[in-house]
Amino acid sequence: MTSTKISVQSLNLYYKDFQALKNVNLEVEENQVTALIGPSGCGKSTFLRTLNRMNDLIEGVRVDGVILLDGRDIYRPDVDVVNLRKKVGMVFQRPNPFPMSVYDNVAYGPRIHGEKNKRKLDEIVEKSLRAAVLWDEVQDRLYKSALGLSGGQQQRVCIARLLAVEPEVLLMDEPTSALDPLATLRIEELIQVLRNDYTIVIVTHNMQQAARVSGVTAFFLNGDLIEYGNTDVIFTRPADQRTEDYITGRFG
Amino acid sequence: MKTRTTFDQTLSELKQEILRMGFHVEEAIYRAVESMAKQDVNMAQSVIDGDVLIDNLELEIEDLCMKLIATQQPMAKDLRRIAVGLKIITDLERMADYSCGIAKITKRLVGQPLIKPLIDIPRMAQLAQKMVKESLDAYVREDVGLAANLATDDKQVDSLHSQVFRELLVLMMENPKTINQATSLLFASRYLERIADHATNIGERVIYLVTGKREVLND
Lengths: 252, 219
Known about the structure:
Strand order of the largest sheet of chain A: 6-7-8-3-9-10
Structural class of chain B: mainly alpha
Largest sheet of chain B: none
Oligomer: heterodimer
Shape of chain A: globular
Number of helices of chain B: 6
Distance between the termini of chain B: 45 Å
CATH class of chain B: Mainly Alpha
CATH architecture of chain B: Up-down Bundle
Number of strands of chain B: 0
Number of domains of chain B: 1
Number of strands of chain A: 10
Helix content of chain A: 25-40%
Strand content of chain A: 25-35%
CATH topology of chain B: Methane Monooxygenase Hydroxylase, Chain G, domain 1
Structural class of chain A: alpha/beta
Largest interface: A-B, 15 and 14 residues
Radius of gyration of chain B: 19 Å
Helix content of chain B: over 70%
Radius of gyration of chain A: 18 Å
Largest sheet of chain A: 6 strands, mixed
Number of helices of chain A: 10
């Protein structure tokens, strides 16, 4: 049984006069990895950012339509955006740890949400680093700068930092595009582990990655959601010719 | 803008290679049955000797498919094209084995007068050969209609096979001395019937390749 975590209904998004998303309807399943694919400028990252209202920070953006998280509209005026982003966290393309120790990076979120108990913080940091499959690699250098870690480790610090505030949905915007193949595979393995406890939406330019990590794939083109469905179906027998052209590399 | 030119070239090379293998298989079927009708041992031997060529082609094509999968990460229809190619060469290789089986029967029967003139068996061979050709044409042209038509020919081969079976059964009942040769001929007929079934397999794969749907052409 799958249940819907996020329900997107008739979503339109405009950057001033330019319409970047056109009447998108999509159900994000709980505890599933949903991959968003499509050529550059197709709206997939824009779409990802609508899910925790990151687009609010960009000037001239207008959104209409409905996005329900657990049945509640996240665009209602009384929604606490900080709280929303705690629930729906984001990992970015380039690892962006804060210039502080590994420990402080991971404890950052719980601290600003008011956690002061040292023992409690230790617990959260260890648990989060373990969940990000990083604990074994950093446990004896917790108090050294996170910037001294490798790119792949830094990205996992960012994921641990995210997990520390106990989110429900993880948004990942090309989380491995700056990583080498081995670090990429580690993150992909991690995604497989995390999907048991979180709902994950990932934007990727790497089609093989989408095929490997996701259960559901959505294909965007020029702001339209062209097709979405089970990943194995999308990659073996897509219904739409445009999806076929894109995934077989015969676009345009 | 056209992308993936090299990949497309290799894919069409794959099709050409499969066609080439298919051509040798058609030839093997024809020569096997011809050698039987004419009781020509040399021709039969040439079918048996030629089998290694077909076996090697299968391995070469398999390697080509593996290379394409490893280096090009084929998706969707490209993936189906290659996967279907891998299945087709297995069917073709098996058809060649059946042709060899017929050629071996020819060698065994040589010098014995035939207990009946060969009429239906060459007809089955002709049909089977045509089915092989058409199944591969369907693959190369990705023609669903042509693939679906194989079902009709297969029915005809099946009914010829039952006819041969009934006739040989009567002969054996009338004269037990014919049993040795009759069972051999029965095997030959059975081999041709199997070759036709393998051709319908190819047809079913072609339908999957084009439409992504599974259909049965042989029931």
